[in-house]
Structure formats: structure tokens, C-alpha cells
Fold:
Amino acid sequence: MNMVMLLENVRNLSRESNLIDNGTDYTLTSSGWATLHDYGNIALYNELNLVVFSVKFSVGGSQRYARLKIGSYYVWGKNDVAIATYTGIACLPSGLYDVLLEGRDDSGGSVTVDRLQVGKAFLSDATGYGLTSYASAITLRTPARNNLPCGPLKNAMFMVRVWASTGGAQTNFENPGDSLTNGVSLAVDGVQVSWSVRDQDAGSIGNACATYYGSLSVVASHTFTISKDNGGTTVHITVYVNPWLLGNATHEPVTLCFAERSTLYVTMEPLDADPTKTGKLGKTRAVTFGAATDFYDTQSGTGIKVFSHTFTDLKPSETMFLVDGLGGCISNIGVDAV
Structure:
């Protein structure tokens, strides 16, 4: 039996770069917003830019706050910064951007950053958007491609990152059913959704940040609408759409379509974090008895994880391949085809 390996690199490392990696400690003692450190300029040119960042603090605590500004975009904010590492991604248009880490300490102590990393990654089949002042609904069409070795694209993962501030007042992100001070909510295709991660404001410091991850069909347009209780609330938003991005929601990136007895290979890697990344074949049944009977094969792990399955007793076209792992991505996908 002759086998042919058909593999596609959907994460292009030749177009990826680590733009800032600064491990110097910087300390701030200020009861109002001030520059913790100016890291200088980064150049993002010629294409849609997937920006990946990681911020590590060695001193933090209650009433200690930080936010990351790239150019005119606030892409991350955290209230009550702990001694921890915070990560994320953002989608920015081409340009030259100054990178500032801002902070404040209302506790009478200090906040210290240990290390900042900012880089540019590249995943194929992407689209996205960035705005420093949200004014109206954003509609994006998902990518479509039928020539993948394992089958056509089925769904894309949407990442919506929002930073919000209301001058001199508290700002909060609302999930369905919430009624909060100066609330900011998100609707997808006209239906309000819950934020995947949200960091609410504290008092009136002007620093609230939230992220939504959701899997939506390709070959379609999807609309994202931000609603604000207070018209004076400023909203910075970036949206990134990609089938190879992993989230905390279950995601089916492709419709499997290849010959039986072939082997599917999917490489999953860290992107902005190194979570447990999981691939599985099957789906939740009409009546479920747990994962052991819902899925024919489940493989998971941290680091670089390769999922593989040889279809000796399953038809690929009748099987769903599902992934999850917030902070990770798919880097290679293909089949050893009969």
C-alpha cells in the first residue's frame, strides 16, 4: 500500500519574529497613570499583523494596575496586578508603533515588571480589524479554502479583544443578564454573548479589558456589535479571525475529507501561552455518558503536541475533529494518504 504525506504549514515561521524581549526590571511608584517603561518602536508592515505579547511582573498586588499600549491601541489591561505572567494577542494594521507599558499604584507601594515580550506571528487564512475608537458594528467575512490536504475549512475561531475606559468613572463588561455600571456588552450576529475573559475596572481608574473567543462558520459574514451604557465610554477593539487559532470553546476547523486507512496529523503549539491543547474525534451524543463514549480518540498535552489517528475503523467524512486550548494554535495539518 503506497502512502503519500500531504502536509500544510499553516503557521509560517519564516514570517514570524520576536520584536521585543526585554528582561530588565522597571519599577513605578505613582498614584496616577504613568509610564512604567517605553520600549521603543516596532515596525508592522505589508500585511495583517497578529501581535503576540507576554508581560511578567515580580511586584504586584491589590490596588496595583497595568496596561499595555501599542501605538494608539490599548491592547491589554489588568487590575490588581499579581506576581504573574499575562499574555494575549491583538490584530493591528500596518504601521510603526511605540510600545508603552503604563502603570499606577494606589496602595502606597510599587509595581515592577520583570520582562516584556512582543512579537509578530503569522497564521494563514486570517482576517482581522483594529480600531482605537469603536463607533459602529464590525462585519467580517470568514476565509474559505477547499484545497487543504485533509479537507475544506469549516469554522474559524474569532478573537475579540476590547479595552474600555469611562473618564472619572468605573467601567464594566456585561454578560447576558448583567446590569453593571457603565456596562459594555458584545453581540455576535445580533445575539449577546458572554465574554471568555473579563477584567473589570476598579473605581474610576480607567482600565477594563475583556476577550471573547468563539467558533463560527466560514464562507459567511459575521457581525460584531459593541453596546455601551454610557456614550462617553471609549472602546479600543481588535478582532482576529483564523481557523487555526485555539480558544476555550470547542472548535472544528475542517471537514475531514480523505481516503479511509489514511492517517491524520495535526500539530498544536503554544502561541501566546502554553495551555493543555486537546484534539479529539467524535462529538457529544444525543444522550451523553461522558467523553469516554462520546469520542473515539482523545489526545492532549502541553508544549508541541502532535495529534495522529489512522482511520482503520472510521470514515473520515463521518467524523468530527475537534480542538481546544486557549493560548495555542495549530501549526501543521495534513494526512498520510492512501
User: Anything to note?
Assistant: The CA atoms of residues 138 and 224 lie 5 Å apart.
